[in-house]
Design brief:
alpha+beta, 2 domains, 4-stranded mixed β-sheet, 10 helices
């Protein structure tokens, strides 16, 4: 049962891994919330933001409080919604490890994901359909996304690869998965027996590619598939929290 809390709204973009990460955290904490899909072009749906905040998603409004940056949002959930499982371990050593891996997910794994989501014409076209289905575009904006979206997305993927000094997005994601499996080992979660912010970040990133071929390749890794299923069950309330 979702916790009774102040009115909570997540401003998101469907294929944004950082938004998926926040959604996963909210769901695992049992927080009831609404979502508002933000146009990636105009961003007019965003609420009034603090002066230091960039105009990008995710943004979480909790009552009159506006939070931005996926890591800062997840960090605030334990204090704001103490009813659900803690995302930040109380043990300083475990907490430090969880924060280090969560930062790696943001800067390495999530950075690599667009290169496989948008990396081929077929994948870019699928991404365009997914965005179009979730977004409330006007007629002309929707047509522009449908016609120009795949080309723009392919350019984005190319720029990310070039900036990272890489040429193969699939291999990059594979290296990230290898590293995560090493950290995971035989544990239930990446930092041992307890779910942490590191698991939430990685899980959120993977949920972003569920409609794409790379997801099946990720799930072909038994350790990751078991870990993912464990968190997925908790998210749906099928396992004890």
């Amino acid at each position: 049962m979702p916790a009774m809390n102040p009115e909570t709204t997540l401003y998101q973009f469907t294929l944004c891994p950082f938004c998926n990460k926040v959604r996963a955290g909210l769901d695992l904490k049992g927080v009831a919330y609404d979502t508002i899909e933000v146009s990636p072009r105009t961003k007019v749906e965003l609420p009034d933001l603090p002066s230091e905040a960039p105009r990008k998603v995710p943004v979480l409004r909790i009552g009159d409080r506006v939070l931005f940056d996926s890591t800062d949002i997840l960090n605030a959930l334990d204090e704001t919604f103490p009813e659900g499982p803690r995302l930040l371990p109380e043990d300083p050593e475990v907490r430090g490890e969880a924060e280090r891996i969560e930062d790696w997910v943001d800067t390495e794994f999530i950075r690599a994901l667009p290169t496989v989501i948008y990396g081929t014409w077929r994948a870019a076209a699928q991404a365009t359909r997914t965005i179009g289905k979730a977004s409330k575009f006007g007629m002309f904006e929707g047509l522009g996304v449908k016609l120009g979206g795949p080309m723009v997305m392919r350019m984005v993927a190319g720029r990310i690869l070039k900036k990272a000094g890489r040429s193969d997005g699939k291999a990059w994601v594979g290296e990230c998965l290898d590293q995560f499996e090493t950290w995971l080992g035989d544990g239930d979660y990446v930092c041992g027996d307890t779910l942490t912010i590191a698991d939430v970040a990685m899980y959120g990133g993977i949920t972003c590619v569920e409609d794409f071929p790379i997801y099946q390749e990720i799930m072909a890794r038994p350790r990751i598939a078991a870990w993912y299923g464990r968190i997925d069950a908790r998210r749906r309330g099928e396992a004890a929290l």
